[in-house]
Amino acid sequence: MAVKIRLARHGAKKAPYYRVVVIDSRKQRDAKPIEEVGRYNPCVEPKMVQLDLEKIDAWTKKGAQVSKTVQRLVDNARKDA
Questions:
Q1: Residue range 21-57, pLDDT digits in tens
Q2: What is the DSSP string of the chain?
Q3: What Å distances lie between residue 75 and 12, 51, 52, 68, 70, CA to CA?
Q4: Which of 5, 37, 72, 74 is least enclosed, having the fewest CB within 10 Å?
Q5: What is the pTM of this model?
Q6: Nearest-CA neighbor of 59 among 19, 18, 4, 12?
Q7: Is there a contact between 19 and 31 (Cβ–Cβ < 8 Å)?
Q8: Nearest-angstrom CA–CA distance, 52 and 20
């Protein structure tokens, strides 16, 4: 099974809200995830980023691939912490 850590879009039209989820790569964007590991809201000022870095690290050690966007969010969260 190919597992990825990526964004799942929620919210209203023109008001996106994202959840950082661990999901099978063959499933659709908003399908039921294996686990939710964070949240991202670009529509508020400042942008809200809540990530569980321990869970993300645990999943990457198990072989999960991280999308480019989520990797950028993780790198920024580590730099700020």
A1: 999 999 987 889 999 999 999 999 999 999 999 999 9
A2: --EEEEEEEEEETTEEEEEEEEEETTS-TTSPPSEEEEEEETTSSSPEEEE-HHHHHHHHHTTPEEPHHHHHHHHHHHHH-
A3: 27, 11, 13, 10, 9
A4: 72
A5: 0.90
A6: 4
A7: no
A8: 10
